[in-house]
């Protein structure tokens, strides 16, 4: 078990981010969330606050913050603007990948812009015919003189509609298995790339998109890590991303609960505040309990990662449970507000549409439960495992 406690520095950072988020982000959340335009001014402001470089070392222009600090930022910003929190999450994860895996010249060219909010980057892993089954990808990278030619299509790539570059995963070998996938950093102004933005019900300014690659040349210097090690690269990040996403779920849903508690204290029915009725207070008490579990399991997983200890099971638990708990809580907050919440006068319906996407993205509940079961039973009990021979 991890035994971490928030330090005074963590508490000070939380207070600072909360003040910034509530004063600068919360008032414009609805306007930004309803538009498919990316919020560049807000994003640059996040960069000026140092919130886009939390997970990057000071040597390379970041804040060099620990993982708990990154989690606090995701939690607090999500309580004011879920989509802004996603960009902080993305910058911490993608920025870290660029720092660790880009060659020095390319890193110096791209990383400062990512940290300042001038450049957007993202990941391109999912394909039309391979989502959860990532090893079934069809995107190919063919060796040519001086680099590689990429051919194929990626889809459901967050930020790809607005991004300047993507970390693209492609097969460099048809042998199959985890050693057949390689990661490349691809500027999206390269010839042969076309993008198609997806019309989502939420998450609109984030710009989820499909990206097609037709004979796109990528020079050798854009290779990230080693040939054949791309799958390991991205799988190693999932335990981190899923822990942070749990805190985004918590922050968003807790904001909805806080709003509903305040409403239930002043809204009167049958001569008294509706908060006195157990039909109102008990559901909120239940959701608060479930969400508190999401919060602390998320910080527990981050603490395990900081200590270099396994946390795959915990991260998978967070990923299936956190979004589900958040969506159910926000839904009940809408119901408890009554007709006033079934409009755009309150942010609850927008929050429900934004957060619900996390039930699918970054790993479905079914895959996460399979991971938890694998960690409990052993790999040989997976449904696709070859049966052991019996004597």
Describe it for me?
By secondary structure, this protein is an alpha+beta fold. The protein has helices at 8-25, 29-33, 40-48, 67-78, 82-101, 104-116, 230-266, 278-306, 312-337, 348-356, 365-377, and strands at 121-124, 140-144, 147-157, 165-171, 181-187, 193-197, 209-219, 223-224, 268-269, 272-273. The strands form three sheets. It has a four-stranded mixed β-sheet, with helices on one face. The chain has a four-stranded antiparallel β-sheet with strand order 2-3-7-6, with no helix packed on it. The longest helix has 37 residues, at 230-266. It is globular, with a radius of gyration of 22 Å. It starts with 7 loop residues before the first helix and ends in a 14-residue tail after the last helix. The mean pLDDT is 93. It comes from Blastococcus tunisiensis.
Unreliable spans are none
Radius of gyration (CA) equals 22 Å
CATH topology of the largest domain: Butyryl-CoA Dehydrogenase, subunit A, domain 3
Q: Using DSSP, what is the number of strands?
A: 10
Mean of residue pLDDT? 93
Structural class per helix/strand content?
Answer: alpha+beta
Give me the strand/helix succession: HHHHHHEEEEEEEEHEEHHHH
Classify the helix fraction into a percent range: 40-55%
Q: State the shape.
A: globular
> Number of helical runs?
11
Major sheet: arrangement of strands: 1-4-5-8
Report the end-to-end length measured between terminal Cα atoms: 40 Å
CATH architectural label of the largest domain = Up-down Bundle
Proportion of strand residues? 5-15%
Q: How is the biggest beta sheet arranged? A: 4 strands, mixed
CATH class annotation of the largest domain: Mainly Alpha
For the record, what is the CATH homologous superfamily label of the largest domain?
A: Butyryl-CoA Dehydrogenase, subunit A, domain 3
Number of domains: 3
Domain Acyl-CoA dehydrogenase/oxidase C-terminal: 228-376
InterPro entries: Acyl-CoA_DH_CS, Acyl-CoA_Oxase/DH_mid-dom, Acyl-CoA_Oxase/DH_mid-dom_sf, AcylCo_DH-like_C, AcylCo_DH/oxidase_C, AcylCoA_DH/ox_N, AcylCoA_DH/ox_N_sf, AcylCoA_DH/oxidase_NM_dom_sf
Family: Belongs to the acyl-CoA dehydrogenase family.
Cofactor: FAD
């Amino acid at each position: 078990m991890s035994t971490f406690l928030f330090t005074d520095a963590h508490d000070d950072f939380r207070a600072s981010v909360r003040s910034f988020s509530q004063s600068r982000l919360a008032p414009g959340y609805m306007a930004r969330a309803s538009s498919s335009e990316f919020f560049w001014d807000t994003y640059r402001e996040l960069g000026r606050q140092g919130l886009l470089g939390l997970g990057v070392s000071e040597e390379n222009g970041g804040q060099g913050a620990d993982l708990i600090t990154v989690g606090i930022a995701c939690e607090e910003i999500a309580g004011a603007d879920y989509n802004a929190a996603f960009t902080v999450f993305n910058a911490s994860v993608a920025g870290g990948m660029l720092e660790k895996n880009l060659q020095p010249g390319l890193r110096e060219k791209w990383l400062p812009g990512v940290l300042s909010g001038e450049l957007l980057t993202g990941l391109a892993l999912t394909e039309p015919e391979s989502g959860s089954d990532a090893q079934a990808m069809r995107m190919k990278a063919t060796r040519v003189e001086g680099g590689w030619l990429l051919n194929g299509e990626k889809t459901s790539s967050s930020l790809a509609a607005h991004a300047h570059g993507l970390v693209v995963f492609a097969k460099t070998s048809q042998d199959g298995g985890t050693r057949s996938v390689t990661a490349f950093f691809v500027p999206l102004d390269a010839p042969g790339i076309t993008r198609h933005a997806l019309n989502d019900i939420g998450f609109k300014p984030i710009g989820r998109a499909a990206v097609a690659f037709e004979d796109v040349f990528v020079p050798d210097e854009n290779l990230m890590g080693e040939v054949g090690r791309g799958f390991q690269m991205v799988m190693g990040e999932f335990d981190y991303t899923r822990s942070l996403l749990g805190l985004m779920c918590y922050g968003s849903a807790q904001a909805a609960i806080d709003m509903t508690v305040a409403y239930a204290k002043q809204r009167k029915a049958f001569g008294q505040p509706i908060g006195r009725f157990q039909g109102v207070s008990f559901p909120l008490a239940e959701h608060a309990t479930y969400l508190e579990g999401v919060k602390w399991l998320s910080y527990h997983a981050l603490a395990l990662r900081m200590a270099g200890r396994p946390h795959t099971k915990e991260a998978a638990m967070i990923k299936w449970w956190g979004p589900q708990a958040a969506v159910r809580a926000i839904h009940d907050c809408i119901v408890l507000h009554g007709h006033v919440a079934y409009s755009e006068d309150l942010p609850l319906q927008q929050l429900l549409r934004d957060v619900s996407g996390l039930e699918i993205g970054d790993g479905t509940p079914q895959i996460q439960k399979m991971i938890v079961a694998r960690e409990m039973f052993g790999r040989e009990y997976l449904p696709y495992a070859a049966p052991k021979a019996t004597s």
